[in-house]
Design a protein that fits this description.
The chain is mostly helical. Helices cover 73% and strands 10% of the residues. The protein is rod-shaped, with a radius of gyration of 28 Å. 1% of the residues are buried.
Length: 79
């Protein structure tokens, strides 16, 4: 959709005055929810990045612990 009295829907421009009451209602709903949608999308992007980082940290920590445990087991087995 574009600004002003012309609305672009599926690549075709419509004069807002040519829309019926229900179509205008739907256009208004879309206009109102778009900023909220954009904000939620940005928040989700941040959460996905944070989740990936926390998961990477957990995997790194578990691998380090496993390597330490393997070294300790090897030392015991060599004795």
């Amino acid at each position: 959709m574009s600004e002003g009295n012309v609305i672009s829907i599926m690549g075709k421009d419509y004069d807002e005055s040519s829309l019926d009451e229900n179509q205008i209602y739907l256009v208004n709903q879309l206009r109102q929810i778009q900023p909220e949608y954009n904000n939620l999308k940005m928040k989700l992007d941040r959460l996905e990045i944070a989740r990936e980082r926390f998961l990477a940290e957990l995997i790194h920590s578990v691998r380090e612990q496993r390597e330490e445990d393997d070294k300790a087991d090897s030392a015991v087995n060599q004795s």
